[in-house]
Amino acid sequence: MSSILLRKTFSCATRLATRRFSTHFSHALQPLPSQPIQNVLIIKKPQDERVSAALKTLSSHIRDTYPQATLFYEPSAIPLCGSTGELFIASDSPRPPIDLIITLGGDGTILHASSLFSTGPVPPVLSFSLGTLGFLLPFRFDTYPAALKDVFEGRASVLPRMRLSCTLHDQRGSESTGYVPPGWQVMNEVTLHRGRNSHLAVVDTYVNEQHLTEAVADGLILSTPTGSTAYSLSSGGPIVHPSIGALLLTPICPMSLSFRPLLLPGSSEVRLRISEKSRAPAELSMDGRGSRLLHPGESVHVKASPHPVPCVSHSSSDWARDINTLLRFNARFKSSAGRQSLANEMDMED
Question: Is Kinase among the key words of this record (predicted)?
């Protein structure tokens, strides 16, 4: 009788947690907000001539086709566009409201755009592929006229991609704001790693303040579904569809072979605390940006942010296309041509 009551209690708690989490945002593809687009921020990959040429082409097209739009650029892009754009400064000072972000580059350019709005909502992001990676880039640059027309006329759809809200805490458990502002948000992952230290990191992991495990490993990765195809994937984590509301906990080279990656409910609050048993501090990085040492007793608290990144998408099939074309998901090891090429290489070595 007690086991039945326990199952019912757990089921009820799970439904309540899911309901709380669903009030933040929906993970499904949804229509673009119907507000008129007046201020457009264009972000480019730095030090790339092809991207710089694309920036000039795109800016000219928007000025000619949508004269009501005011274009904003980061300081490094202003020289490329002369005096035809406004300066956008990444700071806490008052800035003009941005209605649309356009990125030109790779996935890192979208992460950079997210970091510019790291403590609040992010405007819709329209991304054109001009970089080395393209998991977050549904549009080729040569399609920009049609893509911009759909966005400006309100016919586009957006996929809200989860972000993580992070806070740091000292040995006493008090929040520390010296390294990141309150409510700092990341799009891919939070990582704890032993870095240059020769000793493994010892990290206590808590989920909703319940102790889950003591990890002895090179490190831990806590990622979003978007980040599941980044550092977590190279560490053996699964690929997670971006519409799933979940947190992914992936160990980096753990001492225990039974420590497998975990999918946690999106409503979870996770605390990663450097154990007093740890013989060295661990390096903390967020979306690969910056690094700070966390010493024994210090911790990072992570939960789903109420402010996802609304990425303009073709359809929900973008994800399936990406893992097949970019990851070669479930592709055979070698085609017949590949086997022949391998045989020729082996003959040459002999």
Answer: yes
